Amino acid sequence: MASAIDWWTARFASFAWRFTVLFTGILLLLISAIIFVLYQLSIGEISRSKQQQLNLIAQQQQLLAEQLQYSEFLQQLSLQAEQSRDWIIAYQDSQAALGDLSRVPNHLQGCPDVSSFLVAQGDDLRVYSGCIVTLAQGTLLVAFDEEDLYFLQQRFINASLVSLLLTIILGAFSGRYLSKQLLRRIKRFNQTAAVVQGGNWSARVPSTGRGDEFDLLASNINRMLTQLEHSFQAVSGVTDAIAHDLRTPLGRLRLALESAITQTPQEPITAATLEPMLKELDDILHTFSSMLELSRLEHKQARSSFQEVDLQQIADDAIELLQPIAQDRQQSILLDASGVTTIEGDRSLVFRALFNTLENASKYGGDGATLKLSLTATGFTVADNGPGIATEFHDKVFQRLYRLESSRTTPGYGLGLPLVKAIAEFHGGDVELSNLSPGLAVTVRFRKDRSISANGRETVGTTAAFD
Amino acid sequence: MRILVVEDDQVTQSFLKKGLTEQGYHVVVASDGQDALFQALEGDFQLIILDRMLPKLDGLTVLNTLRSAGRTLPVLILSALDSVDDRVKGLREGGDDYLVKPFAFAELLARIEILLKRSSHQQPAEHSALTVGDLSMNLITREVSRQGRPITLQPKEFQLLRYLMEHPGQVVTRTLLFEAVWHYDFDPQTNVIDVHVARLRKKVESDDLAPILETIRGVGYRLVDSSVR
């Protein structure tokens, strides 16, 4: 008993079985409903109309009995009984029986309630349905032959049973087939998950191209996998970068410390010996926290810090901050703030992106360069007339810790542009480099499409007007 | 001045204790949140240095409990969590300042000094003028002069000098200056602040005037009263 329950529980845990049972059940219910309606419309209807006619005849005879002389009524009745083929009309008073039957059965119900009774016709027993009307001198019976109806009913029931049985078989098979079809697609998801678990991040769920819910699910899962793969690569990228690029400064620091310790007997450690080490360590820590911040920006979702940011104000502040350094390099900074200058964003991050870009231009633009900062509806562009960056390196400068051969001697960590890019992407925008002749233009966008925002504002305006 | 140092890392704790004691502070240490809360509620301290991640009781919970108990003494939060969100959370819970690990000890000292000064005269009187030695600044007319000779300053230079004059004799770090003058939440790392201070110095120490704006190497700056030296 328990094992049987276990067996069923196990079966029922499988989707295919549950689906098949449910599917068959629903199909059965549907077919039963159809049979019921059909029955009501055919046999039910015939039986009801027969009963109606029966009652009509009974009423007619009753009326005649009241209006005619008794002998006239009896005469008329026997005539009627002889003429009607489909109906049995019989009458019995205290003396004799008249009509189609030798006697009127007395257990029948009075009209309009109909009941069945058996009549012997030769060797045959036939089923009739009828009712009796009690008149002044006798009892009148009106009935019809139920045999045809009964036969019809039997055939209907048989047909129904067969069709229900067929439904069960068909339902089981098609339910099984359908669930197998569904499961086959789910199996693909499981297979892909297993492959990904096995370490192959490039595995994707195949799509049938039909665009159904499963394809939608597949494309969602695939998108998620792509994102995870990118994060995964980013993380391992950072780890690799840290391992490679912090090794050099850490190595230097170690050498310096070692030599300071070994030389202590001859020349005692002084502040002058330690200070460069402290500087080196600070640089390492800064690189480290910048990389952490980059990763955080790349994976951060919360935009709680977003507000309306006055780009013009930020540009003024950034220029003011950089101005003394630029002047030392005989560079001039021009500001073109003719465009829309309010954007949605994180004030400090936007400042940072702008300042970093500007500082980069100043650092690599060379002495005497002209830096042009233009504010746009979506962000800003910084253009310089310095040496620029060859097109083949345009992608590389966005890699963390990447430093162009020519700039290895300039102080820096190779995190400036990646950080600008991360900030832009965090805001939903991007960064684009383009060559000028001479120079480089860095365009930073904090959002990609300006029309969306413009529409949004318009809507807000309309609402306000209605208020 | 009594300072409670709450830090579970023993090495950091002993360095803090040693460094602060050398500066003349009386230091009491606590290594976990419960002990910290007990000490803070029982003892009479002028300042608490509170690590965020502590065994037994989280730093922010300690802070929250203290504030609920009506203790208003300044609390400087130390934390290895350095995102803006963490910072905002720490300050919202009642912290007076937030310093991210790893930090320079000089930065910590400078911030402690500022917090102590701020709390000793709770309401900083709304001065209309600032004076440090022979240097004076009128906050209303925005006129700056030294020994009566007017000095013309750019807006940011004025703000830099104002911050320095509000903290005379104290070491002010670059980060503090940047936060106070530019109001952006990040460490520019480059020498931009130094360049700005250098320009300011050129103006306030022009001609034959005695130097008043000292550079503390690797740390920051200090505005001193030239007449005292």
Automatic annotation (TrEMBL), chain A:
In the Enzyme Commission scheme, what number(s) does this protein have? 2.7.13.3
Substrates-to-products reaction catalysed: ATP + protein L-histidine = ADP + protein N-phospho-L-histidine
Please report the stretch or stretches of sequence annotated as the HAMP domain: 180-233
Q: One Pfam annotation, family name?
A: HAMP
Signal peptide extent: none
Question: What InterPro entries does this protein map onto?
Answer: HAMP_dom (IPR003660), HATPase_C_sf (IPR036890), HATPase_dom (IPR003594), His_kinase_dom (IPR005467), HisK_dim/P_dom (IPR003661), HisK_dim/P_sf (IPR036097), Sig_transdc_His_kin-like_C (IPR004358), TCS_sensor_his_kinase (IPR050428)
CC terms in the record's Gene Ontology section: plasma membrane
User: What transmembrane ranges does the database entry give?
Assistant: 15-39, 125-144, 156-178
Q: What is its main location?
A: membrane
- Domain named Histidine kinase is located at 241-450
Q: Does the keyword Iron-sulfur apply?
A: no
SUPFAM superfamilies in UniProt: ATPase domain of HSP90 chaperone/DNA topoisomerase II/histidine kinase, HAMP domain-like, Homodimeric domain of signal transducing histidine kinase
Q: Which Gene3D superfamilies match?
A: 6.10.340.10, Histidine kinase-like ATPase, C-terminal domain
Under what name is this protein listed? histidine kinase
Which cellular compartments is it found in? Membrane
Q: Does the keyword Phosphoprotein apply?
A: yes
Q: Mind listing the GO molecular function terms for this protein?
A: phosphorelay sensor kinase activity
> What keywords tag this UniProt record?
Kinase, Membrane, Phosphoprotein, Transferase, Transmembrane, Transmembrane helix, Two-component regulatory system
Automatic annotation (TrEMBL), chain B:
**Record-linked Pfam families:** Response_reg, Trans_reg_C
Keyword Acyltransferase set for record: no
Instruction: State the UniProt keywords alphabetically.
Output: DNA-binding, Phosphoprotein, Transcription, Transcription regulation, Two-component regulatory system
Response regulatory domain: from which residue to which, for each copy? Answer: 2-116
Q: Which residues carry this modification: 4-aspartylphosphate?
A: 51
Spell out the GO cellular component terms annotated for this protein, sorted alphabetically and separated by semicolons.
cytosol; protein-DNA complex
Q: Which CDD domains is this protein grouped with?
A: REC_OmpR_CusR-like (cd19935), trans_reg_C (cd00383)
InterPro entries associated with the record: CheY-like_superfamily, OmpR/PhoB-type_DNA-bd, Sig_transdc_resp-reg_receiver, WalR-like, WH-like_DNA-bd_sf
Task: List, in alphabetical order, the Gene Ontology terms for molecular function in this entry.
Answer: phosphorelay response regulator activity; transcription cis-regulatory region binding
Q: Output the PROSITE patterns linked to this UniProt entry.
A: OMPR_PHOB, RESPONSE_REGULATORY
Which residue ranges does the Swiss-Prot or TrEMBL entry mark as DNA-binding?
Answer: 127-225
Domain (OmpR/PhoB-type) spans 127-225
| GO biological process annotation, one example | regulation of DNA-templated transcription
For this entry, the protein name equals Winged helix family two component transcriptional regulator
To which species is this protein native?
Marinomonas communis
